[in-house]
Amino acid sequence: MKETIVSVWSAVVSPTLSGLHHLKLPVADLDAATAWWAAVFDARRVPRLDHIDDAGTRYAVVLEVPGLGVPLQLLLLPAASSALPGYDPVTLGVPDRRELDRWTAHLTALGVTHTPVAGGVIGDTLVLQTPEGALVRLYTLPPGGFGPEFAAPAQD
User: Fold this and answer.
1) Per-residue model confidence (pLDDT) at position 6
2) What is the DSSP string of 74-93?
3) CA angle centred on 139, ends 77 and 63, rounded to 5°
């Protein structure tokens, strides 16, 4: 059965994707998480995109994060957010080591827990911690971006 499924999958061409629509992170405290993303990343809430339930309670907000390129939704899900400590759901790109060093100074000034800059697989990285304990990586982008040399090899 497994070989049949793999054979069918390999013969099917996927429809087109056009990139990420938005990112979504669960949080335990919507207001605190919104304030944290605003302080650390200059994120701005887009009030017209707030998610409100039938009882009138706001359960999600959408943030515009400069440089991210897609909206970030913070969703009030305390149980899911309790599983995040130590997990790194998102890695954000920074242009170069100099900018990563500026992030180090910025995070230190804000009192945000973070690692020192370290060498990564394809650049330099540092890791910071959200109020829920999730890890967000800041990683230098490779010179020239993710070009053809990063593409997966063709399958036979």
Assistant:
1) 59
2) EEE-HHHHTT-TT---EEEE
3) 35
User: Among candidates 70, 60, 61, 95, which has minimal Cα distance to 18?
Assistant: 70
pLDDT of 129 higher than 90: yes
Beta pairing, strands 58-64 & 51-52? antiparallel
User: Domain 84-145: which topology?
Assistant: 2,3-Dihydroxybiphenyl 1,2-Dioxygenase; domain 1 (3.10.180)
* pLDDT digits 0-9 by tens, 108-120: 999 999 999 999 8
How far from chain centre, in Å, is Cα 24? 8
Q: CB of 94 within 8 A of CB of 141? A: yes
Q: Where are the beta strands (DSSP E) in 28-155?
A: 44-45, 51-52, 58-64, 72-76, 90-94, 118-119, 124-129, 135-140
CATH 3.40.50.1260 is held by the domain 21-82: no
**pTM given for the model:** 0.85
Kindly state the DSSP code that residue 47 receives in the 8-state scheme.
G
Give yes or no for a contact between 80 and 134, defined as CB atoms under 8 angstroms apart: no
